[in-house]
Automatic annotation (TrEMBL):
It comes from Urocitellus parryii (Arctic ground squirrel). This is RasGEF domain family member 1C. InterPro entries: Ras-like_GEF, Ras_G-nucl-exch_fac_CS, Ras_GEF_dom_sf, RASGEF_cat_dom, RASGEF_cat_dom_sf. GO terms for cellular component: plasma membrane. The gene is RASGEF1C. Signal peptide: none annotated. The keyword Nucleotidyltransferase does not apply. Pfam families: RasGEF. Keywords: Guanine-nucleotide releasing factor. Residues 1-10 have a biased composition (Polar residues). The keyword Nucleotide-binding does not apply. GO terms for biological process: Ras protein signal transduction. Residues 1-38, 402-425 are annotated as: Disordered. GO terms for molecular function: guanyl-nucleotide exchange factor activity.
Length: 425
């Protein structure tokens, strides 16, 4: 009689008793699992654990297999709902539902709930990230809105703690729309002319929108600093953003923190020496040190691990917040994917690589699901989305008109910008 494995035998690591197979080169017979976890194996060996034969087969009775299948489908549709956007895939899912639901009333009810939840998720995904980005395109200096229309940020929100909380609202809202499969799509279709960059497409629109949000926040910070005519006001804006950045760090919002620091380090801002002379820069240097790229962002990674540990042991929603520096997260996943082979020299699947990828993406999934504990202020978030921002040339021109060019290079650039943007000679 063929030996029958129970459902738990099928899915519990370390309890699989595979059918006897001939070892392949570099593979010991019956040893694809080490210490209860997969280490490496050929695809043929893995398939043999799952496919029935004349002498070996998994338990196929629906009443025993059903719970595991339900669990698989529930986790699949919850984590990767975009996999079911195609009609053909939905058809396969409904076919499975039709096969197991009639066997038990509990299955039928659970599968109905699963399909309802999936339809809701697909409807939400259909809305996409449209409307997230308002004035996405930077404006030139010439089209600067009059003061009566354009209200500076401090006129909307003068409390750095409040702004940091509203930035966290924006970050979590954007993160929530990014599906883990977007990382796969970005790297599978990477730009061959830019080997270190992912390739954005219609299947990665939420990921791309989040990268654009980071860039927008950088330029918004620089615009707010360069816009005031008086250096005292510019210094006040810089100190305000330093306090916002510090609160972002305390919250665990590292993406906004890096965007603010990057905005203040843009050349049109950093060249304002008379303005910076009026700023108490000690707090800013501390934040810069935390986000220093030296040693592959060693200081930031230490802070991120601390925030992640705090999140695991959190007693409040605020302590659960972890918003990573997103561009670095993308690069980490990219280089892990590109730098490690999918297969080992003996042809086995490289489980270590895929387990590490799963760990990093799994952490991201956990972090993006945290509910923001701060009350949203629509007037502030609307400003963050829609306030006009200067282009790089517009920032330089505003900077030169705030503090005159100091050398010949700056003077020539100022003259060129005035001619091209303002139409002056």
């Amino acid at each position: 009689m063929p030996r029958t494995l129970s459902t738990s035998d099928m899915v519990t690591p370390g309890r699989l008793s595979p059918p006897p197979t001939e070892p392949t080169d570099g593979e010991q017979a019956g040893q694809p699992f080490l210490d209860g976890a997969p280490s490496s194996a050929s695809l043929d060996t893995l398939i043999q654990h799952l496919v029935p034969t004349a002498d070996y087969y998994p338990e196929a009775r629906v009443r025993k297999f059903g719970p595991k299948l339900l669990q698989l489908l529930a986790e699949w549709t919850e984590t990767f709902p975009r996999d079911f956007q195609e009609e053909s895939t939905i058809g396969h899912l409904k076919d499975v539902v039709g096969r197991i639901a009639p066997c038990d009333e509990a299955y039928r009810k659970r599968m109905h709930q699963l399909l309802q939840a999936l339809h809701q998720k697909l409807a939400a995904l259909g809305q996409g990230s449209e409307g997230f980005m308002g004035a996405d395109k930077p404006i030139s200096y010439r089209t600067k809105p009059p003061a009566s229309i354009h209200r500076e940020l401090l006129g909307i929100c003068s409390d750095p703690y409040t702004l940091a909380q509203q930035l966290t609202h924006v970050e979590l809202e954007r993160l929530r729309h990014i599906g883990p499969e977007e990382f796969v799509q970005a790297f599978v279709n990477k730009d061959p002319l830019a080997s270190t960059k992912p390739c954005f497409n219609d299947k990665t629109n939420n990921l791309e929108a989040y990268v654009k949000w980071f860039n927008r926040l950088c330029y918004l910070v620089a615009t707010e600093i360069c816009m005031p005519a008086k250096k005292k006001q510019r210094a006040q804006v810089i100190e305000f953003f330093i306090d916002v950045a510090r609160e972002c760090f305390n919250i665990g919002n590292f993406n906004s923190l890096m965007a603010i620091i990057s905005g203040m380090n843009m050349s049109p801002v950093s060249r304002l020496k008379k303005t910076w002379a009026k700023v108490k820069t000690a707090k800013f240097f501390i934040l810069e040190h935390q986000m220093d790229p030296t040693g592959n962002f060693c200081n930031y990674r230490t802070a991120l691990r601390g925030a992640a540990h705090r999140s695991l042991t959190a007693h409040s929603s605020r302590e659960k917040i972890v918003i990573p520096f997103f561009s670095l997260l993308i690069k980490d996943i990219y280089f892990l994917n590109e730098g490690c082979a999918n297969r080992l020299p003996n042809g086995h699947v490289n489980f270590e690589k895929f387990l590490e990828l799963a760990k990093q993406v799994g952490e991201f999934i956990t972090w993006k699901q945290v509910e923001c504990p701060f009350e949203q202020d629509p007037s502030i978030t609307h400003y963050l989305y829609t306030a006009p921002i200067f282009s790089e040339d517009g920032l330089y021109l505003a900077s030169y008109e705030s503090e005159s060019p100091e050398n010949q290079t700056e003077k020539e650039r100022w003259k060129s910008l005035r001619s091209s943007i303002l139409g002056k000679t």
